[in-house]
């Protein structure tokens, strides 16, 4: 048994056990409904034998009243069974979405490894829903089994051969239906994979639409999505064909089985082994059996798709975290001394760097990958392969990621804004952030908006220009007032005058707090106490901005060109 199979079964078990009460209630009610359905042809047979043949009006009225009671029970039992089953389905999907969200947002990270954002969304919506539907399918599968058992018992009462035919013929029929569902399971998994990938590509393209238009890359983007979408369509069509073949094959098997039951019943009636009423009951039961077998077909298809989606959910939930929690403790309050000792991670090679508490330092990285890896190490998005990163003498790899990020705030270059007001984006708890707005020149953004800081910002800040978004994102980072602030290229979309204002404001506001500026902005670097040059993954020089610009051609090329 493969690990994936084991974990997918575990996901299904958890989805069912989490809604056991509702699933049990739905199963009991649905089983009562199917059992009642099976009794209808039996009672009609009794009416023919006892009331019609006997000519008793009283008996006829009595059995008709019994039928009325049964039909009333059938109506209510089905209604409440469907409600309980649907509730179990929706709640299980909701619980799965919460589990998926917790894993994606886990401070240890790692869930997005090899997955686009749209793929994660697809797993958290479509796959979670398909797994949840198993809770709706199971009660009706149990009910269908109950209907078959009641029919078999009734047929045993009518005729031993008929009852045995149903009892012994049903298990092989169910096993064949299970085998027929295997191709559907495989193709459903492929369909979900392709669909998730197409969603991921679409999300990426929409997020970068402004950039694509700016560089004239729309045709290439359209071609990329067209290919991805066509692959998704092909997988969907293959899954649809598999489902059609599955449903048709199961229906054909069911039809053959029911025809055999009806033929055997007709033969017994013609030979005088059973009465006319028994024949009517047997034929009615044979026709009724079509319903539970159709339910079996539907349940089998839903289980096949649910197993495929459960495997994808399990793969995400069991993805190892990128960084493990630790038992180390950073001092409170932290002073902010940062020390890299022979750090090798990604593009970084043996980096040695000491940043005293309260210093404003600039880092110029020739390789963008090295800049990103530096940020990952500082924010503990990843642990060094070799060497250590210390803050106030404590190895960050031993500290819980949540605690690290309380002390070291990494403001990435592509930080997004959220839907809400500008004030809420800068300070989620609604406190005043006037100094942070002024230092980042975001007060000018607020002044240009119709309602100032109370102006609503659309999702990802698309209602603002690129420069406005950057300033608001920087204000948010400054307002957090972290002991160590790491900022990556915060002014690439603002003009030089505004950039100079931001450099002055940032240096003033962060005085006495450790600040690391990973940037090539001359204005920001000129405000730094010290500048470090990172080239080839190693530190190749350090000093003041003016000194480095005078003495190093490579620095001038990176910063002043």
Please give the structural blueprint.
Elements: H1 3-17, H2 20-52, H3 57-104, H4 117-158, H5 160-207, H6 209-214, H7 218-270, H8 276-288, H9 290-317, E1 338-345, E2 348-355, E3 360-365, H10 368-378, E4 386-391, E5 394-395, H11 401-407, E6 408-411, E7 420-421, H12 422-426, H13 434-439, H14 442-448, E8 456-457, H15 466-479, E9 484-488, H16 496-509, E10 514-518, H17 522-527, E11 530-535, E12 538-543, H18 545-551, H19 553-559
Parallel strand pairs: 3-10, 3-11, 6-9, 9-10
Antiparallel strand pairs: 1-2, 1-4, 4-5, 7-8, 11-12
Helix pairs in contact: 1-4, 1-9, 2-3, 2-4, 2-8, 3-4, 4-5, 4-9, 5-7, 5-9, 7-8, 7-9, 18-19
Counting copies of identical and different chains, the oligomeric state is single chain
Number of helices: 19
Q: What is the approximate shape? A: elongated
Low-confidence stretches: 1-6
CATH class of the largest domain: Alpha Beta
Could you name the CATH homologous superfamily of the largest domain?
Answer: P-loop containing nucleotide triphosphate hydrolases
How is the main sheet built? 6 strands, mixed
The secondary-structure class comes to: alpha/beta
Spatial order of strands in the largest sheet: 6-9-10-3-11-12
Compute the average pLDDT.
84
Overview in brief:
It is found in: Cell membrane. The chain is built from 19 helices and 12 strands. It is an alpha/beta fold and 561 residues long.
Task: Characterise the protein shown here.
The protein has helices spanning 3-17, 20-52, 57-104, 117-158, 160-207, 209-214, 218-270, 276-288, 290-317, 368-378, 401-407, 422-426, 434-439, 442-448, 466-479, 496-509, 522-527, 545-551, 553-559; strands at 338-345, 348-355, 360-365, 386-391, 394-395, 408-411, 420-421, 456-457, 484-488, 514-518, 530-535, 538-543. The protein is an alpha/beta fold and 561 residues long. The chain has two domains: 1-159 and 304-322, no CATH class; 338-560, Rossmann fold, CATH 3.40.50. A six-stranded mixed β-sheet has the order 6-9-10-3-11-12, sandwiched between helices. Helix 1 packs across helix 9 (290-317). The longest helix is centred in the middle third of the chain and has 53 residues, at 218-270. The two termini are 60 Å apart. Mean pLDDT is 84; it is low at 1-6.
């Amino acid at each position: 048994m493969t690990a994936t199979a084991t974990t997918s079964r575990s996901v299904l078990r958890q989805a069912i056990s989490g809604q056991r009460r509702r699933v049990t209630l739905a199963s009991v009610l649905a089983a009562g409904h199917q059992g009642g359905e099976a009794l209808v042809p039996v009672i009609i047979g009794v009416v023919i034998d006892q009331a019609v043949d006997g000519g008793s009006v009283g008996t006829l009225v009595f059995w008709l009243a019994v039928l009325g009671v049964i039909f009333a029970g059938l109506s209510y039992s089905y209604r409440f069974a469907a409600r309980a089953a649907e509730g179990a389905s929706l709640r299980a999907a909701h619980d799965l979405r919460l589990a998926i969200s917790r894993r994606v947002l886990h401070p240890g990270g790692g869930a997005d490894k090899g997955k686009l954002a749209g793929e994660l969304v697809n797993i958290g919506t479509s796959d979670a829903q398909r797994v949840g539907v198993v809770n709706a399918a199971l009660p009706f599968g149990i009910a269908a089994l109950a209907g078959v058992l009641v029919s078999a018992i009734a047929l045993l009462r009518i005729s031993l051969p008929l009852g045995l035919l149903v009892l012994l013929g049903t298990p092989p029929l169910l096993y064949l239906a299970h085998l027929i569902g295997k191709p559907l399971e495989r193709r459903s998994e492929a369909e979900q994979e392709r669909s998730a990938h197409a969603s991921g590509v679409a999300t990426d393209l929409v997020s970068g639409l402004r950039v694509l238009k700016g560089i004239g890359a729309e045709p290439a983007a359209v071609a990329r999505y067209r290919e991805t979408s066509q692959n998704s369509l092909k997988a969907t069509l293959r899954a649809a064909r598999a489902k059609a073949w599955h449903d048709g094959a199961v229906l054909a098997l069911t039809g053959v089985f029911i025809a055999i039951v009806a033929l055997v019943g007709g033969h017994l009636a013609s030979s005088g082994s059973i009465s006319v009423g028994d024949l009517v009951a047997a034929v009615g039961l044979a026709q009724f059996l079509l319903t539970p077998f159709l339910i079996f077909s539907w349940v089998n298809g839903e289980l096949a798709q649910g197993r495929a989606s459960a495997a994808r959910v399990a793969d995400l939930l069991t993805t190892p975290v990128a960084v493990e929690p630790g038992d180390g403790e950073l001092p409170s309050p932290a002073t902010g001394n940062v020390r890299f000792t022979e750090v090798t991670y990604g593009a970084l090679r043996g980096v040695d760097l000491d940043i005293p508490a309260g210093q404003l330092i600039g880092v110029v990285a020739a390789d963008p990958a090295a800049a990103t890896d530096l940020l990952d190490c500082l924010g503990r998005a990843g642990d060094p392969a070799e060497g250590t990163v210390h803050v106030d003498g404590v190895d960050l790899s031993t500290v819980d990621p949540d605690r690290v990020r309380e002390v070291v705030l990494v403001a990435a270059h592509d930080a997004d804004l959220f839907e809400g007001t500008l004030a809420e984006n800068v300070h989620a708890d609604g406190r005043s952030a006037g100094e942070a707005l002024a230092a980042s020149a975001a007060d000018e953004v607020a002044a240009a908006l119709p309602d100032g800081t109370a102006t609503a910002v659309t999702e990802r800040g698309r209602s603002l220009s690129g420069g406005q978004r950057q300033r608001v994102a920087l204000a948010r980072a400054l307002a957090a007032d972290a002991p160590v602030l790491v900022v990556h290229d915060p002014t690439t979309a603002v003009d030089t005058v505004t950039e100079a204002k931001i450099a002055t404001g940032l240096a003033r506001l962060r005085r006495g707090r450790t600040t690391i500026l990973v940037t090539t902005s001359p204005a920001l670097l000129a405000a730094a106490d010290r500048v470090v040059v990172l080239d080839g993954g190693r530190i190749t020089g350090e000093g003041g901005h003016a000194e480095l610009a005078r003495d190093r051609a490579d620095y001038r090329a990176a910063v002043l060109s």
